[in-house]
Structures are given as structure tokens and as C-alpha cells.
């Protein structure tokens, strides 16, 4: 039974992460056999936490008919999910809570975050098993109460509107990854981005125009002056602000960054920046001992420097834009740092912005998965999330986690939308993961103490 469950976990995570193979083989030039092995190893590593949760539950000797079993199982699963999202810089992709994004359980996200939603999902699944297998009416009532509470919480606004809505234009260039870092095609990629954005820059157009991650592949100081001035001209016709992703070169090294250009910014310069803090292993830094692995890939990879854990939002009109880059939005505990009660409310972001380039993974399920992750962050924080990506998902998400506008995956386009900024602090933004972790630890400890007492009798 244990072996079968372990195999099922590995197969499930391999299916959910199969797009890693595309980045390694199709774009990285790594041999097919090694790309397949690397993908399988990653899936196996991720599956270890689910297998570990099952092993712990078996070791504690939980029985399905016991009334406390659903709570203890949910606690064990939650702690293992949190460990997976924390150890070795963390990889919380495919966390259990994201499966509940379109269910009433997501109503609890502003209270307890994605790990708390995962706890409740495991709990309701165990109650469902008890209801079916052992006809436990108390378990059925627990399901009804939990789902009803979640539905009611979905109707409640934990944050309030602030300032005037911001007119935003999000650029999706759909630049093929195979040509993105090709010097011969660099000028064409830039022209594509500028042509897509041009309709947003006139009178009555967007107040903020956003280009995706690595819209420019050269550092700003190495970018031709005419290119830098082209972005500045977008701000002049209608008084727009422009944000775009690119590497920045500092005295201590390179950073994966976003810069902001306003109408008042001197031509060729920028007025604000955000530097990515949570870097991707193998993509933005090379773990010790794995240089040989990276050398086998035909990718422009290297060691980037980290940005500060908390960076001030970038002000555009009445709104303050809190930026995150690529997979940084997987980490809810990091997204809420700028919303700390220790900071003044007028320093809190009112709109969240993610810029990404998932072209490395093709037109796969990775794009939809990342969109669900962004929706969860919007619900947890009570903030709208806007996303400008190279191939998808470029979208606008309101503070309830609902997708209000979106560009089709893999298609070039310009998304015009109005975004209402929000202020206030949700319980999750105030307390983070601490409450659900404490509940999980207490449940598991009570069960362990009871087990040891029985052994002594």
C-alpha cells in the first residue's frame, strides 16, 4: 500500500511539473535522457513531502474511524507542505491549497493563507471518507459547516477601495524563447513590444503601461540610448508611467529587476526600481556543487544578486504598486511583508504587480498553475493583482481573486483594464502562516502524547 501511494505521488507530481522537461531540453539544449531524469528527480523530491506525511500518519497509527483522525492528518499534511515551501529556498508549486481556488474553501484564504486552505481541504476530504466509509454524520456536518463558512467569507471584503481606479495596459509580446536572447533578433523583439504598447500611450490612454520580465535582455546601462528614449516617449503622449523588466548591473553584480519611467523622468534614465529577492535555483543562482549541471544547458544563466526583502512600492497616480517577479508570488509569506502592521499604511502597496516570462515552459499547464497562484495571493492580501507576461498568463485579477480580463496564452496582445487599489490588512497579512502552523503542531503533538501514554499502559 505504501509503495503504491508513493508511486502515485511521484506520477502525480511528474504530470504537474512535466514542463520542467521543456525548459531543460527544448530551450536548454540538454540531452533528452538527462532532462527526463532531472524532471523525475524534482518530481520525486516534491513527492517526498506527501510520502512523508503518509508515513507519519501510519507511524502514529491513525485509524479512519477515529474522530480525531481528520484533524491530525490535516495537521501533518500542512506541516509537510510548509516544509516543502521553506526548505532549500522552498518550492511550494502545486501546494494543496491551490486546488481549492474555485471552491468555497478559498474564502478562508484572507484568514489563514494557502496553507490554511490546504489544511481545510485535507480535513474535508478526510471527513468525506469518514462519511462514506463509516457513515459518520458528525463528519458530514463538519463538511457542511466548513463549506458554508467559506462561502460566507467569500462575500466579505477585508479591505477597502482607496484612490481613483488606475487605467492600466499590460503588454504580452509572445516573443519565442528561442529568439529572445538571440542578438540578431533582439531589435525585432523590442519593436514588437513597442508596437503593441503604442495604442496605450496616446491621450486618454493608459496611466500605467507594463512590459513583462526581461522585456529587455541587456542591462539598462548597456542598452542603446535610442532604445531607452523609445520607452520614455511612451510616457510623453498621454502622461503614462512605464514599467518593464530587465537585468540591472550594479557594483556588486547583476539583479533581475523592474524599472519605472515617468513623464518627469529624464530621457534615458529611470525613476524607480524593484529588485527580485527570492531567486530561482539553477535559473538565477547556482547551488553549491551543481555548476556542472548548469554548464550542460545552453541558457543565459548565472548568479544574480538578491534585492532587499522589503522594498517600497512604486507610486503611480493615486496608487502604490507592489512588485514581484516571476515565481516570487509563490511565497505568500513574502508577498505580505510590505503589508506589515509595522509599516505606515501610506507605505503599503494598494495594487500587486507580477511580471513573468514563462516562455521557457511552452504553452503548458504551468501558465494556468501560475495564474491560480496569483489569484491566491490576491485573495490572501485583499489586493488586486495585475500580471504582465511574455506568453501568459497576462491578466487582471480583483481583490476577490476573480479574473476580470485576460489575454489568450501564447498570443501577442495589449490588455486594457481599470484597477481599483485597495487598502487595509487582512488577518493573513497581519499574522502570516503562524496561526495555522501552531494549530497543526498542537494537533499532532496531542496525538503523539496520547500515543506514548497508551504505550506505557
Structure description:
It is a single chain. With 457 residues, the protein is α/β, with parallel strands linked by helices. The chain folds into two domains: 2-158 and 434-456, no CATH class; 160-425, Nitrilase/N-carbamoyl-D-aminoacid amidohydrolase (4-Layer Sandwich), CATH 3.60.110.10. The chain is built from 14 helices and 14 strands. It has helices at 2-16, 19-27, 32-60, 69-84, 109-134, 137-154, 177-180, 186-197, 225-238, 291-295, 332-335, 365-381, 427-431, 434-456, and strands at residues 160-161, 166-172, 208-210, 241-250, 253-261, 272-275, 314-316, 319-325, 351-356, 385-389, 395-397, 403-406, 413-419, 422-423. Strands 6-5-4-3-2-13 form a six-stranded mixed sheet, with helices on one face. A hairpin with a 2-residue loop joins strand 4 and strand 5 (253-261). The longest helix has 29 residues, at 32-60. The two termini are 30 Å apart.
Order of strands across the widest beta sheet? 6-5-4-3-2-13
- The CATH topology of the largest domain is given as Nitrilase/N-carbamoyl-D-aminoacid amidohydrolase
In DSSP terms (H or I, runs of 4 or more residues), the helix count works out at 14
Hey, roughly how much beta strand do the residues contain? 15-25%
Under CATH at level 1, the class of the largest domain stands as Alpha Beta
Any idea what the CATH superfamily of the largest domain is called? Carbon-nitrogen hydrolase
Order of helices and strands: HHHHHHEEHHEHEEEHEEHEHEEEEEHH
Based on secondary structure, the structural category is alpha/beta
Segments where pLDDT lies below 50 for 5+ residues?
none
What is the architecture of the largest domain at the second tier of CATH?
4-Layer Sandwich
Helix percent reads 40-55%
Taking all Cα atoms into account, the compactness measure Rg is 23 Å
Per the principal axes of the C-alpha atoms, what is the gross shape? globular
Give the domain tally: 2
Largest sheet: 6 strands, mixed
- State the distance separating the first and last CA atoms: 30 Å
